[in-house]
Amino acid sequence: MPVRMMPVTTAKVIKRPEISQVIGFMSDTAYSIYLKKWQSKYYHQIQIKKKTNNNHNQVVHNITSL
């Protein structure tokens, strides 16, 4: 049997919003952590792509200018 700390009426009023807030907060933090990981993971790849594209454009430009 679970131990009830308060009467059922106050538990219904107080606990449910808190639980939904906690779940919302947890999902928000989990989403932000996931987003940071995703950004840090793909940020380097994007930077590398930008560098290689710039190098490729420079090489093509140098060849055409010759």
Description:
By secondary structure, the chain is mainly α. Helix content is 88%, strand content 0%. It has one helix and no strands. The chain has one helix at residues 8-65. The longest helix is centred in the middle third of the chain and has 58 residues, at 8-65.
What tags apply to this protein structure?
single chain, 66 residues, mainly alpha
Quickly describe the structure.
With 66 residues, this protein is an all-alpha fold. The protein has 1 helix and no strands. The protein has one helix at 8-65.
Number of helices: 1
Structural class: mainly alpha
How much of the sequence lies in strands comes to under 5%
Mean pLDDT: 62
Q: Order of helices and strands, N to C?
A: H
Largest sheet: none
List the helices and strands and how they pair.
Elements: H1 8-65
